Amino acid sequence: MRFVDTHCHWNEEPLKAPLEEQRAAAAEAGVVRAVVVGFDLPSSRRALELARQPGVPEILAAVGLHPHDARTADEGFYEDLRALLADPRAAALGEIGLDYWYDNSPREVQREVFARQVALGVGVGKPLVLHLRDGKDPEADGVYGQAFRILEEGKAREVGGVFHCFGGNASQARAALDLGFHLSFAGPLTYPKNHALRDIARDCPLDRILTETDAPYLAPQGHRGKPNEPAWVVEVARTLAEVRGLSLEALTEAVWENAERLFCPGGPR
Ligand SMILES: [Zn+2]
C-alpha cells in the first residue's frame, strides 16, 4: 500500500523528533509521499530544500503565508513568494486562508493577503492549500462564506486545491466540492465525538478525498497528546476506509491517485 500525507510540517523548527527518524518511521508504515507545507517565507524555503532531498517518503513542497502572519506581508513578500512559486519543486501554494479563531492578524488584512495569494496561485496554475477556521461565533464570523467569495472572485476553480484538515459543516463541504476542491481529513476524524465529520467524510466523492496529519499537530486518537508524525496518517486512512465501508487498500489507492492528480499534474517527476 502507498499512503500519502498531504499536509505536514517537517519544516517547523525545532522538530519534535529528528527528521531522519520520522522519515524512516513513515517509510516503514508505507507512507511514500509527504507534502511539507509552508506557513511563512522561511518555512516555505525550508519546504523547498526538503523537497530537493531524495529519499522515502518523497517530499513535495507547498509555499505560502498562513493567515496568522498576514500582517507581515509587504510588497517584498509577494515578490519573494512569486520567486519561490516558480521553483518546479513548489507543488502548491499554501497554507493560505482565514483564521478568525486566533485573530493573530486583523481580519481585513487576512482577507486581502488571502485574495492576493489566490491570484498568485491562479496566475501560475498551482493548486491552493487552504486553512480556514471560524471564530468563536461561526454564524457571525462566516469564514467559509467570505473565503468562498474570495475564491470565486479569484477564479480559484481554475487551479483547485484542498481544504486542509476540513472542519466545516455539510453544506460548507458541499460548497467546497462544488468549487472543484478536495477535502482533506486529519487526526480529528478519529476522535470519538466527531460523528458529523465522519458523516461528511463518508459522503465526500471518493475522487475528492485526501489524507493528512498536519504533524506535529492533531495526533490521531491512539496517539493523542503526543507530537504527531506523518507515519500516523495510516490511522486517518484506516478510519476513512471504515466509515466508507472500503478496504484499506482500495481507500489508500484512491487517495494516492487524487494526490497525484492534484499535486503532480505533469505525471511522475
Ligand atoms: Zn498546517
From TrEMBL:
<dbReference type="InterPro" id="IPR001130">
    <property type="entry name" value="TatD-like"/>
</dbReference>
<keyword id="KW-0378">Hydrolase</keyword>
<feature type="binding site">
    <location>
        <position position="95"/>
    </location>
    <ligand>
        <name>a divalent metal cation 1</name>
    </ligand>
</feature>
<keyword id="KW-0479">Metal-binding</keyword>
<dbReference type="InterPro" id="IPR032466">
    <property type="entry name" value="Metal_Hydrolase"/>
</dbReference>
<dbReference type="InterPro" id="IPR015991">
    <property type="entry name" value="TatD/YcfH-like"/>
</dbReference>
<dbReference type="GO" id="GO:0005829">
    <property type="term" value="C:cytosol"/>
</dbReference>
<dbReference type="GO" id="GO:0016788">
    <property type="term" value="F:hydrolase activity, acting on ester bonds"/>
</dbReference>
<feature type="binding site">
    <location>
        <position position="214"/>
    </location>
    <ligand>
        <name>a divalent metal cation 1</name>
    </ligand>
</feature>
<dbReference type="Pfam" id="PF01026">
    <property type="entry name" value="TatD_DNase"/>
</dbReference>
<dbReference type="GO" id="GO:0046872">
    <property type="term" value="F:metal ion binding"/>
</dbReference>
<protein>
    <submittedName>
        <fullName>Hydrolase, TatD family</fullName>
    </submittedName>
</protein>
<feature type="binding site">
    <location>
        <position position="9"/>
    </location>
    <ligand>
        <name>a divalent metal cation 1</name>
    </ligand>
</feature>
<feature type="binding site">
    <location>
        <position position="164"/>
    </location>
    <ligand>
        <name>a divalent metal cation 2</name>
    </ligand>
</feature>
<feature type="binding site">
    <location>
        <position position="7"/>
    </location>
    <ligand>
        <name>a divalent metal cation 1</name>
    </ligand>
</feature>
<feature type="binding site">
    <location>
        <position position="131"/>
    </location>
    <ligand>
        <name>a divalent metal cation 2</name>
    </ligand>
</feature>
<dbReference type="GO" id="GO:0004536">
    <property type="term" value="F:DNA nuclease activity"/>
</dbReference>
